Structures are given as C-alpha cells and as structure tokens.
Amino acid sequence: MITRKRLIDQNAKPFLYQHIGDYQVEQMRSTMGARFRIGDLAEIVLGLYGALPLPIEENPNKNMGRLKGSKTLVLADSPNKMTGLATLRRAIEIRDNLMGGWDKVVILGWNFSTEIGRDIEALGQGDRLEVLVIPPDLLDRLKKKGHKLKADEVRFSSLQYLKLGSVSCQKDGERETLSVEIANYVLLSPEALNLDEANRDKLQKIINSDPLALIEYWSVDPDYDGEVFRSVWQDYRGNTDNDGDPYRVVRAAKLVGLPKKNGPRRICVRVVDVFGFEAEATVEVV
Question: Which residues on adjacent β-strands are paired with residue 259?
C-alpha cells in the first residue's frame, strides 16, 4: 500500500499490482515445524469451527468436515491460495454429490479474490452456500496457545463488503463525465481482528458512526472488462489533492473526459480498509 501510494503521488506510468507469498504457510511451518502439511492446518481449522472430520477415504486432504446433527458440509480452503469462483464451484459440486449430497456447504477461507462477493451473488445459491473468514490472527494464537485454544474462543466472520451510492454518466459529444459515490463499507467483525478490548470498543464505535472512515484507499475502473482491473481514479488517506482531509478519503469520485462509450458502461470500484482487507462492487450505467 505504501509503495502504491508513492507511485501514484509521482504520477507513475501504469503498473501491475499483485499479491505474492504463502504467508500463512510459512508462519505455520515456524509454529508446527518443517514437517507441517496443509492438511494438518485444515484439520485444526475445522475443529475450531466445530466440524467433525469426514472419513479419510472421502477426505484424503483432511480439509472437509460436517456439523454434528445436520447435513451441513464444511470445507477449509488452503492458506496458499485465493478463495474465489473456482473454489465456490468446486464446493457446490462436492455439496451436491459427495456421500449422497448435503443441504449446505460452508467454506472457510484465508485469502479471497476481490470479486468473491459478486461471484457468490451470481451463483445464486442463497443459504445453501456460506463463505466465512478464518480469523487473521489465528496462527499467532495457535503459536501462543497451541492445543489449548478452544472453539468458543475463535470467531469466523462474514466477508467485508462495499455498497455504492449514486452512479451517473453524463454525455457531452464524444466525451463522458462519470460520477461515483460510495455509500457504505461493512468491515469484518471486530471480534475477528487482533485487537485488545479497548481498541475493539473504539473500532465498534467507528463502525456504528462512520464506517467509511475505515477506508484506506479506493479506486475506480470506469470500463471494467471483468478480467483486469485498470484504476483510472484513486483516493487514499493522506492524499489532499481531492480534499483537505488527510485522515479520510472522499466519498465521491468524478471522472471527466472519458471517451464516449457505445452501450452500457461497466464500472468497478475497489476499496482497501485500514486493516488491509479488500472489497469491490460493480455496476452498469447507460
């Protein structure tokens, strides 16, 4: 984030932004030793969620379990991958076919594609598909407490998400002016974050009173192709080009002089909060 801000401040040419590194895997190896396997961690995560492991012949990777007394399948995704559309489709297929089928599948993930919210909605599975976030500080807590960490001490949260406000496009000859507003941002539950009680209370007050104050950075792609996000406009905390407040981002963007678009324009907005979590929202305007 710091490097990205510096490049933007210097009016850099377009650059590629990527996530790399299996951070959780390396951290887990330092906790459990070099013989650690991904399945070992999945088994621990399932247990902390309260799921019983499936028989090994149906569950060779040790990453699937079931909630006792129900037909709910639980799948712990790998920490060295992004939970995205491919994972959702695979989980639905497993739900419908494994061991005679299940009523619901719950996916527990570490890292998520920015499109995850839109993908969940597009699949239209309703309450038969649920995606939850493994607490970001779980590995630290396992390192400190090990097997003494109990299920009732761990909170699996719903995904953060972004809501857009007014979005409009005005045409002027061969050019267009696009106006985009962000209306609300819903953070992960404060209980899932590695905070002490005093700071957790402070965070909850901000969530209740001014949730958009938690946004660190947001950007707009006015012509999103669904594959590559190309940021054309950005604002971030510390930037005073768009307004005089260094502690908050602006709530509205105005993109002037865009080339005229024949047909609907697909707009994508991405945000990053102060904890590093990302979310996006997409809308079409004519």
Answer: 175
